Amino acid sequence: MPDPLKKRGLILFAHGARDPRWAAPFERLRDMVGAALPESVVSLAFLELMTPRLPELVEQLVRQGVGELTVVPVFLGQGGHVLRDLPVMVEQLRIAHPALALNVADAVGEDADVLKAMMRYCVEAQKRGP
User: Fold this and answer.
1) Rounded to 5°, angle at Cα 109 from 82 and 111
2) Of 79, 91, 88, 7, nearest in space to 43 by CA
3) I need a surface site. Which of 40, 71, 93, 126 has the fewest CB within 10 A?
4) Omega before 52 within 30 of 0, i.e. cis
5) Spatial separation of the C-alpha atoms in residues 21 and 29, rounded to whole Å
6) Closest CA to 47 of 9, 1, 80, 69
7) pLDDT of res. 76
8) In angstroms, what is the C-alpha Rg of the chain?
9) What is the DSSP string of 77-107?
10) Hey, what CATH class is 7-128 in?
């Protein structure tokens, strides 16, 4: 059960890209999640190529009083970045911030409801045709 005295946060964790326009759908998702969780601090962090990076954002949120944090990898699958890079970052964050309750969700693409939503989109795209 969450501690009602600790400020809660959620970080959407994405890969990053050289083109800043790539982040637009993730920014919209961040805003939508933030509207659905007004009691939480909802942020977006990147693995590489864009800022803020995950370690820097976590440091900032801890300074702002966030004591419970959930990281949601907005990746379609549990590839190398989610299976290898993210656990190393999370372990370093746990060492640096031992009082922080840190939870990491599975990649969004691993969720059955997300896959169903994507399937519906694909089916509708085919129905619309050329």
Assistant:
1) 110
2) 7
3) 126
4) yes
5) 14
6) 80
7) 86
8) 16
9) S--HIIIIIHHHHHHHHHHH-TT-EEEEPPP
10) alpha beta
pLDDT of residue 90: 94
State residue 2's pLDDT score.
55
Q: Which regions of the chain are under pLDDT 50?
A: none
First to last CA, the chain: 50
Kindly provide the b/e burial profile for residues 16-42, where b requires at least 16 CB atoms within 10 angstroms of the residue's own CB: beeeeeebeebeebbeebbeeeeebbb
pTM across the whole model: 0.89
Contact call for residues 38 and 30 (beta carbons, < 8 A): no
The whole-angstrom separation of Cα 108 and Cα 112 is 9
Query: Residue ranges of the domains in the chain?
Result: 7-128
